[in-house]
Amino acid sequence: MKIIHISDIHFTIPGERMGGLNPHKRLAKALADVNENHSDAARIVITGDLTHWAEREAYDALHEVLAKQTVPVRLMIGNHDDRSIFLSVFSDQATDELGYVNHSEVVGDSTFIYLDSTQPLTHAGHFGADRCAWLEAELQQAEHARIFLHHNPMEIKLPAEDQIALVAEDRLLFKDLLNTYRDRIDYIHFGHVHAPIHGTYCGIPFASVPSTCNQSYPDMKEAKLLAGGPMEPAYHVLLIEGRETIIHQIPFNWDGPLFASGAEWEDWSKPVAAE
Ligand SMILES: [Fe+2]
Fold it and tell me: Quick one: signal sequence residues (predicted)?
């Protein structure tokens, strides 16, 4: 099974840039690459920061773009989004009983759990007792689960970025759940950090995906200001077989040369006439 993971597309009102980049062109390029090379994917999952300034026109533009996709798309919101405006534009979006954009579905033989880790007027993540109760009920029913959310639910040891991770008190609640149900959680996928970060947490592998727009730079000393720039964007292709996962990072915006070479040993021999 193939899944496409895209994040932090930061849509604007069409015509407006964000951080010097055109988020509409970037997503269009990413989706064109998906459609050309991965139209066999089972889902496109976009883990939040769907817009940058949470304007209705930006959500309308995204709705129009995604309506043309043949691969089913699943959406989460991030710290730059507005839940109520998002839900008013994406009116068929599933939510939990409390109105959070928490939802789940069985894809293949795995339960995909999509979380809402946002709170108004803060860039930090929140996933308190009420949302943890919903997540626990989902995990109790799942044989195998895969969690998608916007915020990193753990510190990533970048002091400035860790200011806006899932807040400390909610990290503890979330960690308890992960420790209790880790045997049935195959992977955690998130965005928010605009960088590829991989590791394990509570014994569960995790991966974040770069943004389709600006990237962050891993400054391990700076405590306050986030570092970033227009480095190469990417999306992830998840290849899932049972409980096994392979992740390929696709630099969809690369327009430089690609060199073709064979895999036979002789191809690596230095030519006699080499200079
Ligand atoms: Fe973002």
Answer: none
